[in-house]
């Protein structure tokens, strides 16, 4: 399988799922400026919306949308129920509920901060994100969103929260979320994914990760993710 991705983008979520479940996948980076993949493919011919991720199956079928890809990957792996409970159970619906929440209430408004078209609405969007993070911090009672097991929803949340420093959100005001970032960032398979995408740890005790080019553009410094 092939995963079309961009370093530190939402495609990091299914990448982490692959690492956690031992799924062999080829990573193919996409340049957002011209939608050209590093293998020479026109990414718009794969995903007409232009954004990552996209998963190309061995039979050539294409699957898009990160939360769906993550669930698909978990269902194809022998150990997948560790990250996605069995269909028809409350636990499965609970994970899917968090996936929907993260997608609509965190991911979408967060990426609006990286688009100048929404500049006039940033203040209200920022307030909405703070409200959602406050709610989420109160909900997190265990090690992860639904308890002790690390699920596909946790991988997705980790990726979205990793963008916090870039949109003027100090995650340290929410102890449960800060602890979550540190806990997930220390998982061996998560660190494998971070290293594979050449992300550097920076600031706030090294619980956030970004490509070197992003850090340099923002006059930040970072260190490589170590084993």
TrEMBL record:
User: Where does the GST C-terminal domain start and stop, copy by copy?
Assistant: 88-208
Residues annotated as domain GST N-terminal: 1-81
**What PROSITE patterns does the entry give?**
GST_CTER (PS50405), GST_NTER (PS50404)
Q: Which Pfam families match?
A: GST_C, GST_N_2
Record's Gene3D superfamilies? 1.20.1050.10, Glutaredoxin (3.40.30.10)
Q: This protein is called what?
A: Glutathione S-transferase
């Amino acid at each position: 399988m092939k995963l079309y991705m961009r370093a530190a983008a939402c495609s990091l979520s299914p990448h982490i799922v692959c690492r956690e479940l031992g799924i062999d996948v080829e990573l193919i980076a996409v340049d957002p400026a011209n939608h050209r993949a590093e293998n020479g493919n026109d990414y718009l011919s794969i995903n007409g919306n232009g954004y990552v991720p996209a998963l190309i199956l061995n039979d050539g079928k294409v699957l898009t949308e990160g939360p769906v890809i993550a669930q698909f990957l978990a269902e194809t792996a022998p150990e997948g129920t560790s990250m996605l409970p069995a269909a028809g159970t409350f636990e499965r619906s609970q994970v899917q509920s968090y996936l929907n929440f993260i997608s609509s209430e965190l991911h979408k408004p967060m990426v609006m901060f990286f688009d100048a078209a929404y500049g006039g609405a940033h203040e209200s969007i920022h307030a909405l994100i703070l409200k959602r993070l406050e709610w989420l911090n109160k909900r997190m009672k265990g090690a992860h969103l639904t308890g002790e097991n690390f699920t596909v929803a946790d991988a997705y949340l980790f990726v979205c929260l990793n963008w916090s420093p870039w949109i003027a959100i100090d995650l340290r005001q929410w102890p449960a979320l800060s602890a979550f970032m540190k806990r997930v960032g220390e998982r061996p398979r998560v660190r494998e994914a971070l290293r594979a995408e050449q992300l550097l740890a920076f600031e706030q005790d090294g619980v956030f990760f970004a490509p070197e080019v992003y850090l340099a553009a923002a006059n930040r410094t970072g260190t490589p993710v170590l084993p």
